[in-house]
Design brief:
binds flavin-adenine dinucleotide; Fumarate Reductase Iron-sulfur Protein, Chain B, domain 2; FAD/NAD(P)-binding domain; 5-stranded parallel β-sheet; 17 helices; binds iron/sulfur cluster; about 30% helix; alpha/beta; globular
Length: about 475
């Protein structure tokens, strides 16, 4: 048994800044078993309270310790259809691991890294472990009760078909809802507006944090549950929600995310060389600029890049800019490092790679030359009383303006709800911030419509979106079977 948490092997910083290969390399079998042996198998495990998708954490860790890796991944997959994704990008440090009893002693059990280990083990052993049918998504009901042929159809249904469910958006919320319903036996169609499924997992999070082949494999597993994924389908444009109901879908889950970029509204934001992080990352990831010269997607990153913001999106943009050849990349953030919403690990990796941080600083103007960015004028900030987010409010310090020479700026200060579908769906109630109003189970104001993930909460996390997809799947099943 090992007392200390096992470190994750990584690609050295000086090498990785020249490539888009994965940074964290994953545990070996021995490391995974040593780490698993740290778990105390608590009779009342606190870690469980921090997992929105209800994975049996001590259970799968015990199986790893015993060397039963197939058993461990099977147990995880009863609850989580995207374990290799979650093992890589979920903020475990503020969820399950934060609650682990060991967190205040020798460091929490590395639950996320162990989850990733067994998901990768399954992939490298070229087998796909299928979890026992309907064990989780049915909310504890017996598998028998949720078999496709036993689903009770409520009322008259088109051509006496099985009740079909439509899912709009193929991010973690949509994929989870679809997978859970698919496992219960429902025919599910996922409609995705982009050319490939995955949502932010595909177009936002870069290859060096989440390789596309890992995501592809997990989406394939969702499809293998009978889920039909249709891309290039913009609901609200290609067809409306009303038309989906007319086509015979009995319920619709909306998981369209928060993909509308916010800008700062300062002079100069329309200059060449200014990108929203959304466009910047989409060009790199979805449109494969990271595979230059194989793909020639245009993306102009010059020598000095400023990235405005302090979240994961800012860290991803900054680290991508460096890999695309920028000589100097500076993150400009209005509060101090303590308040940065990015995962600690991402900030650490960014610092190791030589990204600079200009903290307590806000851009107030972008200056150009011949239509291109040349300088950014900023003002320094002090910190005042906490605001509604609980973090200290940044306050401009009069007379502290200064300029930085820059030729590219990436704005990563947050996203809002994409209004297209919402505007074209009369009767769908939104909250004050423009997100869909939904109850705990995801039920929205229109009959048969459920919603979850970033389109309800605003920009949040992969695992919270998955938790919402799971709860909605249960509620949809309950509505259709009238139980
Ligand atoms: C760059 C970046 C890095 C991040 N890093 C992390 C991280 O490390 N850890 C973490 O936990 N979270 C991270 N997040 C946040 C996390 O990715 C999101 O909270 C999560 O993806 C939300 O999931 P979702 O399913 O609600 O929406 P999304 O992932 O946004 O998926 C929504 C999908 O719906 C599609 N869609 C939209 N409108 C329509 C329509 N009308 N018709 C059909 N399809 C439509 C979109 O194209 C998209 O594919 C990051 C976010 C970004 C942007
Ligand atoms: S709280 Fe920590 S030690 Fe206890 S069961 Fe969970 S992972 Fe193991």
């Amino acid at each position: 048994m090992s007392k200390l948490r096992q470190e994750m092997p990584e690609q050295p910083a000086r090498e990785r800044i020249h490539n888009f290969n994965e940074v964290a390399l994953g545990y070996s079998e021995r490391q995974a078993q040593l780490e698993a042996s740290r778990c105390l198998q608590c009779p009342k495990p606190e870690c469980l309270k921090g997992c929105p998708v209800e994975i049996d954490i001590p259970g799968f860790i015990k199986l790893i310790k015993e060397g039963d890796f197939a058993g461990a991944i099977s147990l995880i997959k009863e609850k989580n259809n995207l374990p290799a994704v979650c093992g890589r990008v979920c903020p475990q440090e503020t969820q399950c691991e934060e609650l682990c009893v060991l967190s205040k002693k020798d460091g929490p059990v590395a639950i996320g890294r162990l989850e990733r280990f067994v998901a990768d083990w399954e992939m490298s052993h070229k087998q796909q472990v299928i979890p026992s049918p309907c064990s989780s998504a049915s909310g504890g009901r017996s598998p028998k009760a949720t078999r496709r042929d036993e689903i009770k159809v409520r009322g008259e249904f088109n051509n006496k078909q099985q009740p079909r469910v439509a899912v709009i958006g193929s991010g973690p919320a949509g994929l989870t809802c679809a997978a859970d319903l698919g496992r219960m036996g429902y025919p599910v169609v996922v409609f995705e507006s982009l050319s490939q499924p995955g949502g932010v997992l595909r177009y936002g999070i870069p290859e060096f944090r989440l390789p596309k082949k890992v995501l592809d494999r997990e989406i394939e597993a969702v499809k293998n549950l009978g889920v039909d994924v249709r891309v290039n389908m913009v609901i609200g444009l290609t067809k409306s929600m009303e038309e989906l109901f007319q086509e015979g879908f009995q319920a619709i889950f909306v998981g369209t995310g928060a993909g509308l970029p916010h800008f700062m509204g300062i002079p100069g934001e329309n200059l060449n060389g200014v990108y929203s992080a959304n466009e910047f990352l989409t060009r790199i990831n979805l449109m494969k600029a990271y595979l230059f010269p194989e793909y020639d997607t245009p993306i102009k990153v010059k020598e000095r890049v400023a990235v405005v913001g302090g979240g994961n999106v800012a860290m991803d943009s900054a680290r991508c800019a460096l890999r695309l050849g920028a000589k100097e990349v500076t993150v400009v953030y209005r509060r101090s490092e303590k308040e940065m919403p990015a995962r600690r690990e991402e900030v650490k990796h960014a610092r190791e790679e030589g990204i600079k941080f200009k903290l307590l600083t806000v851009p107030i103007r972008i200056l150009g030359e011949d239509g291109w960015v040349r300088e950014i004028e900023c003002i320094r900030m002090g910190l005042g009383e906490p605001d509604e987010s609980g973090r200290q409010r940044p306050i401009p310090i009069k007379g502290s303006e200064f300029r930085m020479e820059m030729d590219t700026a990436v704005i990563a200060i947050g996203q809002g709800a994409n209004p297209l579908l919402l505007r074209r769906t009369p009767g769908l109630r939104l909250n004050k911030r423009g997100y869909i109003e939904a109850d705990e189970d995801g039920a929205a104001s229109l009959k048969g419509v459920f919603a979850g993930g970033d389109i309800v909460t605003g920009a949040a996390t992969v695992i919270s979106a998955m938790g919402a997809g799971k709860r909605a799947a249960r509620a949809i099943d309950k509505m259709i079977t009238n139980t």
